[in-house]
Amino acid sequence: MGPVFDGGLRGAGRGMRRWNTTERLLLALWLSLLVHAALLWLPLRPGQWSGWHEALRVRLRGEPAPAAAEPPPIAPPLAEAPQPEQDDMPPEDIGDDRLRLGADIYYPARELDQLAQERGRIALPDVVLSGSTQPIEVLVFIGAGGRVDAVRFEGEVNAKLADAVAPVFRGADYQPARKDGRAVKSYKRIRIEPQTEAAPPPLSH
């Protein structure tokens, strides 16, 4: 029969103090905290939480950004007001029936040695008008080279008739008037009488 250590164990047991209930609860609490702390510091396994975070970041980047407000269309530059051309200036009577248009003086028929003559026949277009139209008077300003510088209408004129007649005279070509042996600027006063038939109205000087 071998040696018996019962007495020694009993002696060791007598030397150990028993834990009371409060101490046991504190010990259990500390163990629980240690376990949770260890879990928090454990390295993440591949494919677990790290993959979830990456997916979250990708999803956020994939959200459409708010559409940038389109810049307002560039307004076109304001058109400059057209400068009055010579053909838009009213003639100025400077006496003796002479007319000034801009800086140029145009002589009347009575001062000329030779009147300006048309180089070709002037044919007025047919114009469809409603109602009766009064005769109109046209002032044709002819330069010293025979070109027409401007066309003016005297008094109230039917706009449709004026738009049809004015280009015809502007495009006409004349043999210039002469005064004291040289070509000068002159003007013609032409009366146009509208007719009911299709024939072009006659010209009278």
UniProtKB/TrEMBL annotation:
The chain crosses the membrane at residues 25-44. Keywords: Membrane, Transmembrane, Transmembrane helix. The keyword Transmembrane applies. It comes from the Bacteria. Residues 64-95 are annotated as: Disordered. Residues 85-95 have a biased composition (Acidic residues). This is TonB C-terminal domain-containing protein.
